[in-house]
């Protein structure tokens, strides 16, 4: 019997808060159904090239956040950019904050760290 304990899932503090991936490294133990569902949503969101470009643009932007006006040049129309950003938020990969007429997006450092740990082989 394993002595591995699952950490409790934390509810986001606000509706726009990022949901940190909950799962242990893939090589540690098999995922529970809930862990697999959450992780699949995250990877499904990143499986689209436009979403991956948007996520990368936000993650690499100076100051750790990006205005939608600065990241919308990904080869699709503005409504499509908004749709893809919404999907990234729903997957827990981005948070957003409205400031005047613009929306600013941020990748929480804990999300990037958890994604990296998930793919770590032990």
Q: Briefly, what is this?
A:
It contains 5 helices and 3 strands; from the N terminus they run ααβααββα. The chain is mainly alpha-helical and 122 residues long.
Description:
This protein is mainly α. Helix content is 43%, strand content 11%. A three-stranded antiparallel sheet has the order 1-3-2. β2 and β3 form a beta hairpin. The longest helix has 14 residues. The chain starts with 32 loop residues before the first helix and ends with a helix. The N terminus is likely disordered.
Present the secondary structure layout.
Blueprint: H1 33-46, H2 49-60, E1 65-67, H3 68-71, H4 78-90, E2 95-99, E3 102-106, H5 109-118
Antiparallel strand pairs: 1-3, 2-3
Helix pairs in contact: 2-4
What labels describe this entry?
122 residues; three-stranded antiparallel sheet; 5 helices; elongated
Q: What is the overall number of helices?
A: 5
Unreliable spans are 1-17
- Briefly note the structural class of the backbone: mainly alpha
Helix-strand topology string:
HHEHHEEH
Count of strand segments: 3
